[in-house]
Amino acid sequence: MSHFIERIQPRAADLGEGLLVRRALPTRQRRMVGAWCFLDHAGPADFAPGGGMHVGAHPHTALQTFTWLIEGEVLHRDSLGNEQVIRPGQVNLMTAGRGIVHTEDSLPDARRLHAAQLWIALPPEQADCPPAFEHHPVLPRWEQDDCSLTLLAGHHAGRQAPATLYTPLVGIDIQSHAGGALRLPLDPNFEYGLLPLEGSLEIDGEPFASDEFAYLGQGRTELAIQLAPGSRVLLLGGEPFGEPVLMWWNFVGHSKAAIIQAQRDWEAGDPRFGPVPGSTRRLSPPPLPWSVD
Ligand code: MN
Question: Are 43 and 98 in contact, with CB atoms under 8 Å apart?
Fold first, then answer.
């Protein structure tokens, strides 16, 4: 049975201070895969001491930021007072809800960075939930078909990842050492996407190079891929999100009014977006793209 595959080229985005990332979601062709609504791939990159990722204090709303660190060491600090270094093989999950502020900085001695940063849109009934932060140093890992797999989010074949989620989602990191075929069961109610982070893969006879996103749609009961030696692939899936969300700067919202209010509150220094202890650099959004009535 043949299935539909959409090939999506990521766009370059600048996180500031010369850190370029490839952004596979959202793009013109595709906004979301399930509730996954943002996918930045940073590195793998070498940099001088003091370089790497340095993102000043910025707010988020109505989303969860999901950081999967492959190489490097990054310090997360937030307005709840959390201060957490994330290391390879670990996940940071920050639930913004009604509002949170955070900074992200490569550690001073770090020389390398490789990470995927994703956003998960919160459903309308959770959009204003209290903010929260989770650090998950240990994730389900297993070996299969000469691949090392890590369950990042959701459940798969009897395994359960620890991240708190609000919609049905899955995320799996797949690392192939020698290359070869891999088969995984899929949920036909989920839509899926595959992003080669390193190396390349082939699905249904179609090759995908590093950073070419393969959107697979719904209806598949199995994933069958061929991986090049040394490849690393991110599999994302989820139930299609009920309604499209709005995204502007670092805000997700279910209405323009919600996003306009969030931006006004950030610019006004409203206590909704508290300070990040130890941080003085505060990022400013571009002017709102909508006229304010
Ligand atoms: Mn952020």
Answer: no
